[in-house]
Design a protein that fits this description.
Bound molecules: coenzyme A
Number of helices: 10
Number of strands: 10
Order of helices and strands: EEHEEHEEHEEHHEHEHHHH
Structural class: alpha/beta
Length: 260
């Protein structure tokens, strides 16, 4: 794994924790950090030893407080389109990755931070977490997919409310809205919960879990999700892991999946 300036990486039981490490700036996503995230995501695609990823922010105050506003002065209409497209690409890579990502949201997840958390496959928040898309306060709108994913996750009426007012969503509201999977008392408990879920997933057949990601994403893409599911189901039935899974059930033992 390469060395990063703004990310800290650690691995335990094949689960990689990526911590965005700009605590003094509330882990705001500057260009350099976004590029590092892109690089780490590409490494995760290539490294089959990584069975799951926890994405979190350094410290207790923020997951990510947004794109780095100090870099906004250079934006004009042309550069802004590229800015949005580059950010959207990283979010899409996370969303489409067959290695599951869980965002552990340990404080503010605003703007690009909320968008990053929403691109992950699941979100676990601490009680103090606050979500929001406050871009309207700056005279802009979300550019890293926030208008789309917030609507997908919490529904049209609520998304309109929070996108138009810029108000924050507390952890308890986020849980009630389905924006987060679980709320835990503190960061340690949230990290443990995420680790536990990823370990459970890591024991399943990787081809099947990867295809689940594709099929769930198909709901939101312009494709026939039922067809995607039928194709994926058929593909699973051609794998060695499927044979092993059925054999293990009949032999009353735990399956040993190999990813082929
Ligand atoms: N971009 C750049 N710097 C940011 C930032 C961002 N999105 N969010 C916070 N920071 C910086 C602050 O400028 C400050 O830096 P400084 O100490 O050098 O002045 C530091 O992080 C701490 O933030 P501060 O505002 O002092 O903390 P707070 O507790 O008073 O407020 C927030 C916390 C999150 C409410 C506030 O920082 C905020 O509104 N941030 C911007 C959120 C936003 O609009 N995000 C979307 C961007 S598109």
């Amino acid at each position: 794994m390469p060395d990063f300036k703004n990310l800290t990486l650690s691995t335990r039981e094949n689960i990689l924790t990526v911590t965005i490490n700009r605590e003094k700036k509330l882990n705001a996503l500057n260009k350099a950090t976004l590029n590092e995230l892109k690089e780490v995501v590409q490494t995760i695609y290539d490294d089959k030893e990584i069975k799951g990823v926890i994405l979190t922010g350094a410290g207790e105050k923020a997951f990510v407080a947004g794109a780095d506003i100090s870099e906004f002065t250079e934006l004009n209409e042309m550069i802004a389109r590229k800015f949005a497209e580059e950010g959207q690409e990283v979010m899409e890579q996370i969303e489409n990755c067959h290695t599951p990502f869980i965002a552990v949201v340990n404080g503010y997840a605003l703007g690009g931070g909320c968008e990053l958390a929403m691109a992950c496959h699941m979100r676990i928040a601490t009680q103090s977490a606050q979500f929001g898309q406050p871009e309207v306060n700056l005279g802009i709108i979300p550019g890293y997919g926030g208008t789309q994913r917030l609507t997908q996750l919490i529904g049209r009426g609520r998304a309109n409310e929070y996108l138009l007012t810029g108000n924050m969503i507390s952890a308890s509201k986020a849980e009630a809205f389905g924006l987060v999977n679980h709320v835990e008392a503190d960061k340690e408990a949230a990290l443990n919960r995420a680790h536990e879920i990823l370990i459970t997933i890591s024991k399943k057949a990787p081809i099947a879990t990867g295809l689940v990601v594709d099929c769930v994403n198909a709901v939101f893409n312009d494709e026939n999700g039922y067809q995607t599911e039928a194709n994926a189901f058929s593909r699973c039935c051609g794998t060695e892991d499927f044979k092993e899974g059925s054999r293990a059930f009949i032999e009353k033992r735990a399956p040993e999946f190999k990813g082929d």
